[in-house]
Automatic annotation (TrEMBL):
Keyword Glycosyltransferase applies: yes
Bilayer-crossing regions: 291-312
Superkingdom of origin: Archaea
Gene source species: Methanobacterium bryantii
UniProt name for this protein: Glycosyltransferase 2-like domain-containing protein
Lineage of origin: Archaea, Methanobacteriati, Methanobacteriota, Methanomada group, Methanobacteria
């Protein structure tokens, strides 16, 4: 049996990455899927370029695959957010949904998820970052493991860096773990060369949102992403809710993707959301002992260390945005529900 998959890809001013991702996805060995590209109000003509690719008008160059015209043109449909909520059925291979504003990762993904569940009647939702390239067998491996047990609610692949000093075998993610006493999430295997040390299927605490296969019944039971997060920590929240509802998160090493992970710290908005959402996550899921431990460690060490770091960075850049956004994230994370 080949369950139906709805692949949700979020795009925001990243058409070049999205097109490379789409081409790699179109060359997979699993065929029972549809693609939903949700555009978060891009200003770079992303949808126009994606449509041109689907018609066979853009040749994709990549070190990971050879471009093929055999799967072109691709049957597409384009809707606004409001239109997508009214459509009852569509047989397009790629559905493009144009949002009226940037809804962030959480609600942007939810828009695609709702379309996949309601309009496509999908058995699974695959959340896939637009800046990824997938192995041809990745989806088949994720589905095979997910179908092996009704208790598996989430499945995530082995994720490599797209380019790590010209290497493609350096791991970025091999499952996620949480330390509730420290308030820290950890990507297992991060920055390690893959020598087979993470080649066993295993239960983990969460799967990364860059590529996460979720069963329909899980989403129907626990709901979609918590939209108040906007971006960062939302996948840990989703998996934690699922785990508490009795579903497992599983790491699948035979499923492989490559991710263009950004190491940039120049966007203070990311710092704000990450900091604020860390506190929201801890307030929501940590028990009393864990939360007190987290606060003592954070304000006894990390607060001073990071405040000094961002202040010095701000002096160098002649802007204190980073330190201000960091402090704002802490304040809103503690005092806003």
């Amino acid at each position: 049996m080949n369950p139906k998959i709805a692949v949700v890809i979020l795009n925001w001013n990243g058409s070049e990455d999205t097109i490379e991702c789409l081409e790699s996805l179109r060359q997979t060995t699993y065929f029972n899927y549809s693609i939903i590209v949700v555009d978060n109000a891009s200003s770079d003509n992303s949808l126009e370029k994606i449509m041109r690719y689907c018609k066979g008008g853009i040749e994709v160059k990549s070190a990971f695959f050879k471009y093929s015209l055999k799967n072109k043109p691709i049957k597409t449909a384009e809707y606004t957010k409001e239109q997508s909520e009214k459509i009852k059925f569509n047989s397009a291979e790629v559905v493009l949904i144009k949002n009226d504003k940037n809804y962030g990762f959480a609600e942007g993904s939810n828009i695609g998820i709702r379309y996949g569940l309601t309009n496509l009647d999908s058995d699974y939702i695959l959340l896939l970052n637009n800046d990824t390239v997938v192995d041809s067998d990745f989806l088949r491996e994720l589905v095979k493991v997910s179908e092996s047990s009704h208790k598996i609610g989430f499945a995530s692949p082995k994720t490599y860096y797209y380019d790590f000093n010209n290497k493609r075998n350096v791991i970025n993610f091999a499952g996620g773990s949480l330390n509730m006493f420290k308030g820290q999430s950890h990507s297992i295997g991060v920055n390690e060369v893959d020598n087979g040390q993470y080649d066993e299927i295993k239960t983990v605490e969460y799967g990364e949102g860059s590529c996460l296969l979720v069963k329909r019944e899980v989403l129907e039971k626990i709901g979609l992403f918590d939209t108040k997060y906007f971006a960062y920590w939302e996948e840990a929240d989703l998996c934690t809710r699922g785990n508490k509802a009795g579903y497992r998160s599983v790491y699948v090493p035979k499923a492989k993707i490559w991710h263009k992970v950004s190491a940039s710290t120049d966007d203070p908005t990311k710092l704000y959301y990450y900091t604020r959402n860390k506190f929201w996550f801890m307030r929501k899921y940590a028990n009393r002992t864990e939360y007190i431990s987290f606060l003592l460690l954070f304000f006894g060490f990390y607060f001073w260390n990071l405040t000094c770091k961002y202040t010095l960075y701000g002096i160098y850049k002649r802007s204190l945005k980073h330190s201000n956004y960091f402090l704002k994230g802490i304040k809103n994370g503690i005092f806003i529900k």
